[in-house]
């Protein structure tokens, strides 16, 4: 039994943690938040120089060629730091989609740009409230032109290109669109977490290429989302761990009624529950990483498990962070809201926990068919 | 990252299997060892003793004990591998666990040479069964508040009081008991630890009937029971330290959890049940719940794998293994309640889910309640400050007690 990361991988994680402690303290988030900017491009450039955006991209396409276990640990550290960069949309969604289904030409063009940080990719899915099904997609692809509107596109107005879920005459299809095209209008949306900005994208006869086979978009999208779910779960796990550590430290140092508030069972039992939630999430994340790295079909069960339990852990720890800080937890000045915002944003971005539970039960029911 | 045995582990597993194949039959399909346990009739006890002796005589008992006490200095992961393999066979219930896991190591740590020579070998071979007399009606989670007294009379000690929740007292030859020898000092300082012959005059054992009708444990009453001073374990007044050795050896619970019902069982039950004119499996609330149980169970399963990995690398799991019980026990109760709910109007009829529901509260209490588990995680893993203890510096006899305990 060796259900753990290797020493080399842990060393890489430590390097990432040290790097982000210096380059991505929470002050960097605050600057983004208070300046009205959407992200920190210098940090994006610096992480690209570390090889992080290309961690899972083969060296032949300009990547660092580490692998998905390494990428998972980097994701966890970015999650701990709440780094204000579009790592999720670009690395977990766009990069994974290209790795799975890109033609050689697409990979040559986009993966090299993604790895170097020159390009930011994203995935455009939502068209209205809820989660679109293959049948309900309205955005259409015909004759190499894309028409329609997407909302809540993560990093939508800083991305270089988008992978867009659309319909063609053959059925659900993924399209790759260069967002520099004049046929795309981008409108920034104010986000619950302004350090993870979103945008509305309108396509009017926008030139688009197929990503993967026409009409096979639903299956491909499912695979991309499973892989992204595992990686995003690591990011959420990192955020949950840090939120919890900061809460624990605060309650140990804060005195009321003559003793540290952490000594009251009303708080310590809830912190025990937080610890349990984080550990269960970590275990499901490890399972997801194992399946992701080996391309094991178990990812169909592991990805929803990791996604849901990491969402629960980050939700719980960020909500409790505000509550256990008391009045100051509700102030702009304290950092609690940075976690509270990020947790909620990340819990929604590729489908909420209910959506992933439903996905899991569909797969379990199919596995244990009548 | 992989789930495979190392080469040494695989060799050990193969040896264990070869031994088991020679002596025991594998479980039948659909059968689990849980179904076979909780029996304490004389035939079962005889069978269990014979199996323990066979294991001991062939070097497969007390694996982790030191060689000098008849063990083989096995690593914790080897012990886990043995348990995994043994669980696949139709073996009799393990009625020696408390002795071998907790009491044996306590004698090794605190016993005299005579005590070690007299007790350990017979315990290891299952010739003598042991029980642990710690909890009392007024001392459960607050164990050091126990009040069964031991008074020195000549060369003997005279015991009076009551113990409770004593697993297996009714078929044990020996017990280990913590008593109060000095009520004039603060509670932890006035305790002394003894070995007691469960057949001694003045001991009365009454089986306790549980919610689910079973009777796994007992009340044990002591009326002027004599214990020779040679059966004292550790110094007078040092009983708390000795008891801590026992408690530290509580077997780390590894893997498993989840209360016995699997997600495929719940899916099958939901599929067969009619709700609002359609299958309950089509109901979104039902689906969400099944997913939630599955996710918690897999979280526990892979937490177990992480613990096994730590063991495999030679680390001993710490108090963080309390997670398994804190998550698994309440979830067992929730899953059973959900399974009953799935049956709708038919849900009252006694079946596996109902049996599980009736049995499940016990697991949330035994071996540390959910609340104590949270304290352990909070204080020993997260290092949060303990609750203030009002009785810490007070003579035990002056500690306030509720009206019920007087």
Summary, kept brief:
The complex is a heterodimer of chains A (370) and B (406). Chain A has helices spanning 7-23, 26-35, 41-49, 68-81, 87-101, 104-116, 217-253, 265-294, 299-325, 336-348, 353-367; strands at 121-124, 140-142, 145-154, 161-168, 171-178, 184-189, 198-211, 255-256, 259-260.
Account of the protein in words:
The complex is a heterodimer of chains A (370) and B (406). Chain A is of the alpha+beta class and 370 residues long. Chain A has helices at 7-23, 26-35, 41-49, 68-81, 87-101, 104-116, 217-253, 265-294, 299-325, 336-348, 353-367; strands at 121-124, 140-142, 145-154, 161-168, 171-178, 184-189, 198-211, 255-256, 259-260. In chain A, α7 (217-253) packs antiparallel against α10 and α9 runs antiparallel to α10. The longest helix of chain A is centred in the middle third of the chain and has 37 residues, at 217-253. The radius of gyration of chain A is 20 Å and the shape is globular. With 406 residues, chain B is α+β, with helices and mostly antiparallel strands. In chain B, 41% of the residues lie in helices and 14% in strands. Chain B is built from 12 helices and 10 strands. In chain B, a hairpin with a 2-residue loop joins β9 (274-275) and β10 (278-279). Classes of the chains: A alpha+beta (370), B alpha+beta (406). Chains A and B meet through α7, β9, α8, α9 and α11 of A and α8, α9, α10 and α12 of B.
Q: C-alpha Rg of chain B, in Å?
A: 23 Å
Task: Note the gap between the termini of chain A.
Answer: 34 Å
Strand order of the largest sheet of chain B: 1-4-5-8
Element-by-element helix/strand order of chain B:
HHHHHHEEEEEEEEHHEEHHHH
Poorly predicted regions of chain B: 251-259
The total count of strands of chain B amounts to: 10
Please report the two chains with the greatest interface, counting residues with C-beta closer than 8 angstroms to the partner's C-beta.
A-B, 51 and 54 residues
- Termini separation of chain B comes to 58 Å
- The pLDDT mean of chain A sits at 96
- The number of helices of chain A is 11
SSE order of chain A in H/E notation? HHHHHHEEEEEEEHEEHHHH
Structural class of chain B: alpha+beta
Overall 3D form of chain B: globular
Q: Which runs of chain A of at least 5 residues are low in confidence (pLDDT < 50)?
A: none
Largest sheet of chain A: 7 strands, mixed
Secondary structure category of chain A = alpha+beta
Shape of chain A: globular
As a percent range, the share of helical residues of chain A equals 40-55%
DSSP summary, beta strand count of chain A: 9
Assembly type = heterodimer
Give the fraction of residues assigned to helices of chain B. Answer: 40-55%
């Amino acid at each position: 039994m060796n259900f753990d990361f290797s020493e080399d991988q842990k060393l890489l994680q430590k390097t990432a943690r040290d790097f982000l402690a210096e380059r991505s303290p929470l002050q960097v988030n605050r600057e983004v938040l208070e300046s009205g900017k959407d992200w920190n491009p210098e940090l994006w450039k610096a992480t690209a120089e570390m090889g992080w955006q290309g961690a899972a991209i083969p060296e032949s396409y300009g990547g660092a060629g580490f692998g998905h276990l390494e990428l998972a640990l980097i994701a966890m550290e970015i999650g701990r730091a709440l780094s204000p960069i579009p790592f999720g949309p670009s690395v977990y969604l766009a990069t994974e989609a290209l790795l799975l289904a890109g033609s050689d030409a697409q990979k040559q063009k986009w993966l090299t740009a993604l790895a170097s940080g020159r390009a930011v990719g994203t995935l455009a899915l939502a068209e209205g409230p809820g989660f679109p099904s293959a049948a309900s997609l309205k955005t259409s692809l015909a004759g190499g032109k894309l028409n329609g509107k997407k909302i809540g596109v993560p990093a939508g107005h800083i991305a270089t290109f988008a992978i867009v879920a659309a319909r063609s005459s053959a059925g659900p299809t993924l399209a790759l669109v260069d967002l520099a095209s004049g046929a795309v209008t981008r409108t920034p949306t104010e986000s619950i977490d302004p350090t993870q900005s979103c945008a509305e994208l309108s396509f009017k006869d926008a030139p688009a290429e197929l990503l993967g086979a026409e009409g096979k978009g639903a299956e491909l999208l499912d695979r991309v989302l499973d892989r992204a779910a595992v990686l995003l779960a690591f990011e959420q796990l990192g955020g949950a761990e840090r939120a919890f550590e900061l809460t624990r430290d605060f309650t140990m140092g804060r005195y009321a009624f003559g003793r540290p508030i952490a000594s009251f069972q009303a708080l310590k039992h809830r912190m025990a529950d937080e610890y349990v939630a984080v550990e269960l999430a970590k275990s499901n994340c490890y399972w997801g990483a194992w399946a992701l790295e080996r391309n094991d079909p178990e990812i169909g069960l592991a990805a929803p498990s990791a996604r849901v339990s990491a969402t629960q852990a980050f939700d719980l720890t960020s909500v409790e962070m505000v509550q256990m800080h008391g009045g100051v937890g509700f102030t702009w000045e304290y950092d609690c809201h940075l976690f509270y915002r990020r947790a909620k944003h990340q819990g929604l971005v590729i489908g909420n926990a209910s959506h992933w539970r439903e996905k899991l039960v569909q797969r379990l029911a199919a596995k244990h068919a009548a | 990252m992989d789930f495979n045995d190392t080469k040494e582990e695989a060799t050990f597993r193969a040896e264990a299997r070869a031994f088991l194949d020679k002596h025991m039959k594998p479980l039948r399909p659909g059968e689990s060892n849980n179904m076979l346990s909780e029996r304490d009739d004389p035939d079962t006890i005889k069978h269990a003793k014979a199996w323990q002796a066979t294991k001991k005589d062939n070097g497969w008992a007390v694996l982790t004990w030191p060689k000098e006490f008849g063990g083989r200095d096995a690593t914790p992961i080897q012990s886990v591998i043995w348990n995994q393999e043994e669980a696949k066979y139709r073996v009799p219930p393990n009625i020696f666990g408390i002795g071998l896991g907790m009491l044996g190591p306590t004698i090794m740590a605190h016993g005299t040479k005579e005590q070690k020579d007299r007790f350990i070998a017979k315990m290891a071979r299952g010739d003598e069964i042991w029980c642990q007399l710690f909890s009392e009606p007024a001392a459960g989670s607050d164990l050091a508040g126990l009040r069964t007294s031991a008074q020195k009379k000549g060369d003997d000690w005279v015991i009076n009081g009551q113990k409770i929740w004593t697993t297996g007292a009714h078929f044990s030859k020996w017990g280990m008991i913590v008593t109060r020898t000095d009520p004039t000092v603060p509670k932890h300082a006035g305790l002394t630890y003894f070995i007691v012959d469960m057949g001694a005059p003045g001991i009365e054992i009454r089986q306790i009937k549980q919610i689910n009708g079973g009777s796994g444990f007992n009340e044990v009453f002591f009326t002027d029971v004599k214990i020779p001073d040679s059966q004292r374990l550790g110094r007078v007044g040092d009983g708390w330290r000795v008891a801590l050795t026992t408690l530290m050896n509580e077997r780390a619970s590894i893997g498993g959890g989840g209360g016995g019902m699997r997600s495929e069982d719940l899916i099958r039950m939901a599929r067969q049940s009619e709700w609002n004119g359609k299958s309950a499996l089509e109901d979104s609330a039902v689906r969400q719940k099944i997913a939630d149980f599955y996710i918690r169970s897999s979280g526990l399963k892979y937490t177990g794998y992480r613990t096994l990995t730590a063991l495999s690398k030679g680390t001993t799991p710490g108090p963080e293994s309390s997670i398994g019980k804190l998550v698994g026990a309440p979830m067992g109760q929730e899953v059973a309640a959900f399974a009953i709910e799935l049956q709708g109007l038919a849900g009252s009829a006694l079946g596996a889910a109902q049996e599980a529901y009736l049995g499940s509260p016990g697991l949330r209490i035994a071996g540390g309640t959910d609340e104590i588990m949270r304290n352990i995680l909070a204080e020993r893993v997260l290092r949060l400050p303990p609750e203030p203890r009002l009785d810490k510096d007070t003579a035990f006899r002056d500690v306030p007690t509720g009206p019920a305990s007087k």
